[in-house]
């Protein structure tokens, strides 16, 4: 049998890792992260411009990302900050909750529907990262659709700069229409908040329904990928057309839509909210807050004998929301007067927040010197320090200066 001449040696084929990467980029297939240490905090906008329906999409997106992360004490730890005109710690890094517990807390976050105090929310996230493990990567994902509110005492430029200085890698997902006359200003704000380079840390979309298309893109940036492919539907959203952006904008690309399977987790302890007297109903049944932006939600501590529950009565009807909450009211004046000699008579006012090592949680108050305000936290029941007050009035009388 005659054989022809041997041809020239061809180019080497793609490696397995390269094939997997290309498939992921094309199809947006389910990514699974390796169980490597990570401190991750979501900062979630719940302001008026978001709207109740879009807020549900935001919660679905956050849970879809959490579903892909290895959540454990030794691997990924998750924190969540919810904000509008107030900011609330839904989950802290120290709580060591399971993946299902974190997702359940996210699902039950209330829609606040007021201002966009992004600076205060980033400040709160910075505080959560103080409990980070040494040498572990710190990542924050800020999701917002509006300009930072000028009434916020904590300016977003300053708190974002503090985050960058502390080694926190900041990713930003901004939702805004390019036809908006203030779009360029909004994009500039997102660039300030995000880490450099912007093209790797800023994702701009014009519709909340496009969030599922960003899921794999975000995951590829924030975690080490497992080589195992998971071709599972990963979104509850139907396929939709995503309009490609201008080619010169590397942050705006056409992403495939994925599917997500949500798991329901029953909550054992539920405290029903007490409706506020200033609430009125819209025709569609939702609650409408008719008072100014600085109305705070009612927070009712649960039983001191267990982990407890906190109910928040806000602009949306709530029946069973369980979360760990901290709220901060914006000071009335942007420039507080200088401290006097007797401004901080209690020695605990200058001490950092310390929940203690025990787990018999009760709701207490602590003083935040940077915001000159008192906020709630979960006290473990033992040790800690003197920055621990049983009532808000006691905290204010001891620490807050006017």
UniProtKB/TrEMBL annotation:
Which Gene Ontology BP terms does the record give? Answer: cell adhesion
In what residue span(s) does the VWFA domain sit? 39-222
Pfam assignment, any one: VWA
Q: Which UniProt keywords apply?
A: Cell adhesion, Collagen, Disulfide bond, Extracellular matrix, Repeat, Secreted, Signal
Where does the record say this protein resides? Secreted, Extracellular space, Extracellular matrix
Offer an example of a GO molecular function term for this protein: serine-type endopeptidase inhibitor activity
Question: What's a GO cellular component annotated to this UniProt protein?
Answer: collagen trimer
Domain of life, per UniProt, equals Eukaryota
In this chain the BPTI/Kunitz inhibitor domain maps to 349-399
For whether the record's keyword set contains rRNA processing, the answer is no
Q: What is its main location?
A: secreted
Q: What is this protein called?
A: Collagen alpha-1(XXVIII) chain
């Amino acid at each position: 049998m005659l054989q022809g001449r041997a041809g020239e040696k061809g180019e080497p084929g793609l490696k397995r890792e390269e094939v997997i990467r290309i498939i992921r980029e094309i199809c947006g297939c389910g990514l699974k992260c390796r169980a490597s240490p990570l401190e991750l905090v979501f900062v979630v906008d719940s302001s008026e411009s978001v709207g109740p329906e879009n807020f549900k999409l935001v919660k679905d997106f956050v849970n879809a990302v959490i579903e892909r992360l290895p959540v454990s004490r030794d691997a990924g730890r998750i924190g969540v900050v919810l904000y509008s005109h107030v900011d609330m710690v839904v989950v802290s890094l120290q709580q060591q909750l399971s993946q299902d517990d974190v997702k359940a807390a996210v699902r039950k976050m209330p829609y606040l529907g007021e201002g966009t105090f992004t600076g205060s929310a980033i400040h709160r996230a910075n505080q959560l990262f103080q409990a980070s493990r040494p040498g572990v990567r710190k990542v924050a994902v800020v999701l917002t659709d509006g300009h930072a509110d000028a009434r916020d005492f904590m300016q977003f430029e300053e708190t974002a700069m503090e985050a960058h200085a502390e080694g926190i890698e900041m990713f930003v997902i901004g939702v805004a229409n390019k036809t908006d006359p203030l779009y360029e200003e909004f994009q500039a704000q997102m660039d300030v908040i995000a880490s450099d380079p912007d093209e790797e840390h800023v994702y701009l979309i014009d519709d909340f329904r496009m969030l599922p298309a960003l899921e794999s893109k975000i995951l590829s940036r924030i975690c080490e990928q497992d080589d195992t492919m998971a071709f599972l539907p990963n979104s509850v959203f139907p396929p939709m057309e995503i309009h490609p952006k201008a080619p010169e904008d590397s942050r705006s690309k056409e992403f495939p839509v994925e599917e997500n399977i949500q798991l329901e987790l029953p909550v054992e302890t539920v405290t029903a909210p007490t409706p506020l007297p200033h609430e009125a109903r819209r025709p569609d049944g939702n609650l409408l807050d008719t008072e100014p932006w600085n109305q705070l939600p009612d927070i009712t501590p649960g039983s001191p004998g267990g982990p407890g529950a906190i109910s928040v009565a806000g602009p949306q009807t709530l029946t069973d929301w369980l979360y760990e909450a901290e709220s901060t009211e914006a000071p009335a004046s942007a420039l507080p007067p200088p401290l006097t000699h007797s401004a901080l008579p209690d020695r605990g006012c200058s001490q950092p927040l310390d929940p203690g090592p025990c787990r018999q949680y009760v709701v207490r108050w602590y003083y935040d010197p940077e915001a000159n305000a008192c906020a709630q936290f979960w006290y473990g029941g033992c040790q800690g320090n003197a920055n621990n007050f049983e009532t808000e009035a006691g905290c204010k009388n001891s620490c807050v200066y006017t």
